[in-house]
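Handout, section 3.2

Students often ask what a structure token actually looks like in practice. Rather than define it abstractly, here is a full record for Nucleotide-binding protein TM7x_02055. The first block is the sequence as you would receive it.
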Amino acid sequence: MASFSFDIVSEIDKAEMNNVFMQAEKEIQGRYDFKGTSAGIDWLDDKKGLKLTGDNEWQVDAVLDIVRKKLAARGQSSKSLDLTKEKVTSNLKTTWEIPFKQGLDQAMAKRIAADIRTNAPKAKPQIQGDLVRVTSASKDELQKVISLVRENDYDTPLQFVNYR
């Protein structure tokens, strides 16, 4: 009997993130309410996240709103932004470093695997590093697992790859 599988991963599309960055940067430069201010967007080290700047907290939130709109327009999830870091205000300038969430941590992988075991007993999830591999004898069962995972609201963007 044939066995089918796919992997559940949490990755960002670097090309799409680059497009989001460039579009957001262009909109920030063109907005009238940002003229003559320090409002802007920049990359963190090695393109692992974004650094938002502004004259005050309101401007940084407005820049984040622009980034979220650009993410949505490009079909990317805003869940890929790790908003847990605090905004830093110094010298009349506010900055906010927002790293990207990438890879499944063990707690999230265990939660996903447990949900699959509970709701789809014919599918077998296995945690392999920062991904969860799901195998089953039935492609229909794998489709059921994909729809189940999409319905649950996990706090990280999930993709389904290597469907065989």
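Discussion prompt for tutorial groups: The CA atoms of residues 3 and 137 lie 5 Å apart. How would you have guessed this from the sequence alone?
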